[in-house]
């Protein structure tokens, strides 16, 4: 994320996070997901791929950010959203508790995270901290985040409904 980039802010377990808006395709309401048998699990045994969703004829994997960030899972609420993001050449969905909107950071309030701050357990996905008067927003590195998701084989190569022939 560059200092001039805007980011979409969202909450997970009461903590505010953000990702670069450049990778965001759309935000959709939470829907029932199609479970994926034997989907990849992290070393902790927690599945990161929560299921599959059909978004305008495209079948996409949906990742639990709670699982990726080692947070306890909760039932979806009316505020739960799926962020459709594009990283590398794949689109995936990310489950978040609520979306707060798009913010244009003031450079003097943006602090890059030093490697010594990024510790173990997936915190290497943290790229910067944005300080607001009412608290902090932890900015996530999308490439690093999805690198922890074990979504190989779930990308758009899984096909589209329109061209699948089944």
Commentary on this structure:
This protein has 166 residues and is mainly β. The chain has one domain (7-158): CheA-289, Domain 4 (OB fold (Dihydrolipoamide Acetyltransferase, E2P)), CATH 2.40.50.180. Strands 8-1-2-11-10-9 form a 6-stranded mixed sheet. It has 2 helices and 11 strands, in the order βββββαββββββα.
Comma- or semicolon-separated keywords:
five-stranded mixed beta sheet; six-stranded mixed beta sheet; disordered C terminus; 2 helices; mainly beta; 11 strands; 166 residues
The tally of domains stands at 1
Q: What fold name stands as the CATH topology?
A: OB fold (Dihydrolipoamide Acetyltransferase, E2P)
| Unreliable residue runs | 116-122, 156-166
- Helix fraction bin: under 10%
Q: How do the SSEs run, as a string of H and E?
A: EEEEEHEEEEEEH
For the record, what is the CATH homologous superfamily label? CheA-289, Domain 4
Write the layout of secondary structure elements.
Elements: E1 7-12, E2 15-20, E3 24-29, E4 49-55, E5 58-64, H1 65-68, E6 81-87, E7 90-96, E8 98-103, E9 110-112, E10 126-132, E11 135-140, H2 142-147
Parallel strand pairs: 2-11, 5-7
Antiparallel strand pairs: 1-2, 1-8, 3-6, 4-5, 6-7, 9-10, 10-11
